[in-house]
Amino acid sequence: MNTLDVRIVTLDPMRVASVLGFGPSPEAVAWEKLAGWAGPRGLLAGPDRPRIFGFNNPSPSPASPNYGYEFWIEVGPGVDTDDQVEVKQFGGGLYAVTRCQGVETITDTWKLLVAWLAASPYRQASHQWLEEHISGADVALEELTLDLYAPIAR
Questions:
Q1: 17 with 66: CB under 8 angstroms?
Q2: N or C end: fewer C-beta atoms under 10 angstroms in the chain?
Q3: Where are the alpha helices (DSSP H) in 9-152?
Q4: Is omega for the bond preceding 58 within 30 degrees of 0, making it cis?
């Protein structure tokens, strides 16, 4: 990837259902929780599926193989929850966004986006860094498509 296709977008505030996984592969743990909750509610299938975002929480540390990953799925008012799911209000914000495909490209694409941000007229903001899960739940890891969201300010 020689050039990075970056677009500037504003994410509107949204209500999200949140699940958290922790361990050496927390993405799979968190996804299992999300799928177990959202799947039976019909939220993971079809062309109108809600947006799904994820991010490290807590981030990896050199001292431990364990870290956390949190998934958010956009939900409307009145959604029912259980002990695995917490409803949160996300305030939205301005983002620099680029797309990557395949699990093996995520780290390098994040590095390129951070370098793009450092050379851009924008500055890093304090709202949440995000990965939007574009592909459906049944894709192979090498076909996983994500939009990476770096929080920015003018």
A1: no
A2: C
A3: 26-38, 106-119
A4: yes
Pick from 12, 4, 116, 23: which is nearest to 65 by CA?
A: 23
Residue pLDDT, tens place only, 69-117: 999 999 999 887 888 899 999 999 999 999 999 999 999 999 999 999 9
CA 91, CA 14: separation in Å to the nearest integer?
Answer: 7
Cβ(66)–Cβ(42) under 8 Å?
Answer: no
Angle subtended at Cα 80 by Cα 32 and Cα 145, rounded to the nearest 5 degrees:
40
Q: Does pLDDT of 54 surpass 50?
A: yes
Other beta carbons within 10 Å of 87:
13
Query: 78's torsion region: left (phi>0), alpha (psi -120 to 50) or beta?
Result: left
